[in-house]
Amino acid sequence: MNNVHQTKCAKEPVAIKVENLVKTYGNDVKALDGLTFSVKAGAIFGFLGPNGAGKSTAVHIMTTLVNPDHGKVTIAGMDIISNQAVIRQTIGCVAQKSGVDLLSTGRENLTLQGQLYGLRGSQLRTRVSDLLERFHLTKVAKRPANTYSGGMQRKLDIAMGLIHRPRILFLDEPTTGLDPESRTALWESIRELAKEEGLTVLITTHYLEEADQLADEVAIIDHGKIIIKGNPEKLKEELHGDILQLELSETNSFENIEHIISDLPEIQEIMIENDSVYIRTDSSAKIVAVVLGILEKAGVNIKSTTISRPTLDDVYMKYTGKTLSKSEGEVDS
């Protein structure tokens, strides 16, 4: 059984259940390594982790595109291996790579998608019009999609995933490449959808703010395993106190810093990464001057000092030993 930390929650109907999922590519690339989690019906669930952590592979399996090597997945109570056709009618999926035909208009893209799901006549026309209105695309519905902004194209992508009224919607990195304004607008659309249509939404993302803003629950995945799962606010609250970040000179030696300040009773945890020291404390106002004084006497040069409340990046760092940006760098290198 995986040693997964998980906040307690009341029992509710489960829309997605993943048990001990394993997927290996080639001889030695283990994308998923005993992945286990569940998503409550009607929830927005954030699947958080760096690129290469296994998020997209998990989505491919949950949406019946790839079979696992081992483990079990049920979607709306149905096994993904023996009920693939029914599950594909039950879910909507918006892949990381856009499925929009750029030469067709917004209305044509939605109409074709609806026809693929068997919609016809007035039922199809009404659904297309409703989705164009919901995503504020009515005014551009007759324009080719290649004239749309990136945010508009992504909205059309999501509308296409909703054309057949799915009960569960998978969004794989939905805001990658969007500017901050378009990202915020898309978040609002997703929140409205989940609330008004009672959708269960699973979002994979490597944007900490996205998971924090949208998700009722988040699961942090690292190397194909769930490291921590729970409500974002509760996970942050569990890290009591503030985070004191000290950015140090690149020429400093970091080897003795933890030893120098670790005896201070106000310090709960110390993390060192790149050119920064992260200190978790309940007494930030009191401890900052003390720490700076001790390090100054030891010849450590401080470039900047920041005090902040715990974030999901701090949660990620606590359970993985590194920040998400550091994990991204390891994957890319």
TrEMBL record:
PROSITE patterns: ABC_TRANSPORTER_1 (PS00211), ABC_TRANSPORTER_2 (PS50893). GO terms for molecular function: ATP binding; ATP hydrolysis activity. It comes from Pseudogracilibacillus auburnensis. One of its GO terms (biological process) is doxorubicin transport. It is a peripheral membrane protein. It holds the Pfam family ABC_tran. The lineage of its organism: Bacteria, Bacillati, Bacillota, Bacilli, Bacillales. This is ABC-2 type transport system ATP-binding protein. Belongs to the ABC transporter superfamily. Drug exporter-1 (DrugE1) (TC 3.A.1.105) family. It is found in: Cell membrane. It comes from the Bacteria. Its main location: membrane.
